[in-house]
Fold these 2 entries.
Entry 1:
Amino acid sequence: MHTIGKFVLGLMGQLRAKPAIGDSAMSISLPPPEKQGGLPLMEALLMRHSSREFSPEPLPLPLLSTLLWTAYGINRGDGGRTAPSALNAQEIDIYVALPSGAYRYDAAANSLQLVAASDVRRITGYQDFVDDAPLDLVYVADYTRLSRVPFSQRESYASVAAGAIAQNVYLFAASNSLATVLRAWIDRTAIAEALGLTHDQQVLLSQTVGYPSIIKKNQ
């Protein structure tokens, strides 16, 4: 669907998910992430950029597992994560929009847990490319974990944490010849409804990830 059409549906409160493609597994166990290799940091920073053209080819599970671990996985024995959060609140949840359904990333179990048996990619942003890109990440703040932060400051704290996660994804994409773009022009109400979020949760940002449209995976 074209951007303008989606935007109009959003204004009307009628932007809806599509039926899932394939089986919506209740849980997807991810293989262990690859924690070695990749480009040196300075080279990854040199290559970091936003892209809005994606191949529909899905990311294999080993690559998806490493992507999610890089974004916000557990990297220490005490449960610390690859991205910082104030007071170690770990208030951000990553939701993964796949053709087969929407899943919440469980870093401790290294798995995906089904939250919606529908294809919500088209509502993760008004841009037309999100409909067919293989993967959209949605960063959601759970404010019940920020009880020690004044209410008026919670969104700012969570937004900083989400930004750190998004940069991890950018650097991983640059290091693995993937395309990605962070998006704030989104229908947060439609996404929240599709994911079944509570009033204590807020959609902050979405980020599309996939192979560049001009590069095949086997090249």
Entry 2:
Amino acid sequence: TALEDKSQLLADGELKVTRKPLDGFHLLIAEDNELNQEIEATLLRMNGATVECVEDGQQALETFLASKPGDYDAILMDVQMPVMDGHEATKRIRASDHPMARTIPIIATTANAFSDDISAALAAGMDAHVGKPLDVKQLCKTLTDCIRRING
């Protein structure tokens, strides 16, 4: 009946409202600045993602290498970090024999947004670049675009 169709429409509308853009995504964040890490993690969790944070590129590399395929949908990689920077960590991830090494989306997060910085991030093997301060809508769109490209 028409009434049943209308209630179905309402139920659908409610589902659309409660669905978050990053629902079901598991992300690894490499960020050495504690405040930036907290803000980034909070923004991503508010949009439905589960998040694990590490403090430098070496930890990002080790955490990724110890993971099973599917543990992470993407890595958000700060470029300038102590111990190992984001470019080097990305190169080592891409060169590793991990089953996801060549396909996991790695997104540079950096305040350096000049074309040379973006080119360097892409040359290191990163899939995309998001400038700081982070624009949460742009970050969510970049993540979903990169993850969908891999997962079809």
